[in-house]
Design goal:
By secondary structure, the chain is of the alpha+beta class. The protein is about 40% helix and about 20% strand. The chain has 3 domains: about 35-150, 2-Layer Sandwich (Beta-Lactamase), CATH 3.30.450; about 170-185 and about 190-320, Beta-Lactamase (2-Layer Sandwich); about 330-395, Winged helix-like DNA-binding domain superfamily/Winged helix DNA-binding domain (Arc Repressor Mutant, subunit A, Orthogonal Bundle), CATH 1.10.10. A hairpin with an 8-residue loop joins strand 12 and strand 13.
Length: about 400
């Protein structure tokens, strides 16, 4: 695998974020490049305190898996997925890994998941990379080969590791575009004080192409960040240098796959193995100092390719401004706005997402078991879902409201 493979895939990835139909092309190309037969982006909710337990496994995108396999996995096979269980339980801190570090083939053949799922659908060796590990959700990308095929090599893992920071940024960018899509529905129902959508679109030369109304309000305050001669400026010289570097690498990647900008990155792989790879700039996060006692602003800089969700032909990067002093919307709050849930229904939906059972919810909210069951029926009816698991998948598909910590 060569750098041109990485460059080609990055263009497909960022095109896929803003034009969802293109994401399938990215997945197929990635499979072909690493000689895999299946690929999946998924998000998990799990608890590691006390007894380890995975609450949900939401498939965000799949490629190469037959519909029967996807359906069976969603129905509950994920609860027996030994790859998923061991990667989270034993190597939750690892950024990437391969299945041979999790379990031997001989041991795998004695598991339920192999007999019921992997063998019937010819699923063998796997490699994965962690995309996020926030409190609660844990997202990852994984690729599989046919049963009995060669294990993924260190070179394969190094290539996936080079893609990982861009996949993380793609998650951030996708959530930002989702929020812009549902903004009008939310704002028409939400209470005052909800977090704004403050976005600046950047040209390849680093100048600001366009801003949302909320971004303009922040910039006009001249508190932490402002516009000067068409460019974003901050007061601290060292922060300014970091901001310019992040914008430069992000715009370069958004324009043509990052040719000319390569960064060396290292990560801990499962099994105490250290992986080093070279990749093009993916932008990043930055804390921008403000006048005390106000806390710093959070800036998220990502490459951008125009598409059907947001068509700005000259835009090559996106900068999102977030004020940590403004409380973000929870998934339940977004669900409440979109589906007109009552405050009690929204709280119960949030507790369902956290993995609580009906009896636990009854104790938490202080309502009778019968009342909570009625509320859950109302939530399912309003959201057009049939089961609690389907509701949880719907909520996981909404914007993730909690920003990652800035570096």
């Amino acid at each position: 695998m060569e750098y041109r493979d990485l460059s080609r895939l990055l263009l497909l990835l960022y095109e896929g974020v803003s034009t969802p139909q293109r994401m399938q092309a990215f997945m197929e190309d990635l499979m072909h490049t690493v000689h895999a037969k299946g690929a999946v982006l998924r998000e998990h909710e799990y608890r590691s305190q006390g007894t380890f337990q995975i609450h949900t496994a939401n498939l965000l995108a799949t490629c190469g898996y037959p519909p029967e396999a996807i359906s069976l996995y969603r129905q509950g096979i994920w609860k027996k997925d030994v790859y998923l269980q061991r990667s989270l339980e034993r190597f939750a801190g690892a950024e990437c890994g391969v299945s041979q570090t999790l379990i031997s083939h001989a041991e795998l053949q004695r598991t339920e998941v192999y007999a019921e799922y992997q063998k019937p659908f010819d699923i063998g060796p796997m490699m994965w990379a962690r995309l996020s590990a926030e409190s609660g959700p844990h997202s990852s990308v994984s690729l599989v080969r046919a049963d009995g095929a060669e294990y993924f090599s260190e070179d394969d893992l190094r290539f996936l590791h080079a893609l990982a920071p861009h996949l993380r940024q793609a998650f951030h960018l996708n959530r930002t575009l989702q929020e812009m899509q549902v903004s009008n529905a939310i704002l028409s129902h939400a209470a005052q004080g909800d977090a704004p959508i403050a976005i600046c679109l950047m040209r390849q030369d680093g100048t600001v192409l366009n801003t949302t109304e909320d971004a303009e309000k922040i910039l006009c305050k001249h508190d932490g960040v402002w516009l000067e001669k068409g460019r974003l400026r901050v007061a601290n010289p060292s922060e300014q240098a970091v901001l310019e570097a992040l914008i430069a690498t992000a715009t370069q990647t958004g324009a043509n796959g990052g040719t000319g900008y390569l960064n060396r990155q290292s990560a801990q792989a499962a099994g105490q193995q250290c992986i080093t790879s070279w990749t093009s700039g993916s932008g990043g996060t930055l804390l921008v100092s403000r006048t005390p006692p106000r806390g710093p602003l959070q800036l998220l800089i990502t490459p951008f390719c125009p598409g059907t969700l947001l068509n700005e032909p000259q835009a090559t990067a996106l900068v999102r401004l977030s004020d940590p002093n403004v409380a973000p919307r929870s998934r339940a709050a977004i669900l409440k706005a979109l589906y007109k849930l009552t405050p009690t229904e929204a709280r119960i939906a949030d507790l369902l997402l956290q993995g609580l059972e009906t009896r636990e919810i009854s104790h938490t909210v202080g309502n009778t078991l019968e009342s909570v069951r009625f509320n859950i029926k109302q939530i399912l009816a309003k959201t057009g879902t049939n089961r609690k698991a389907q509701l949880v998948r719907l909520m996981l598909g909404l914007i993730n409201p909690e920003p990652d910590s800035a570096h």
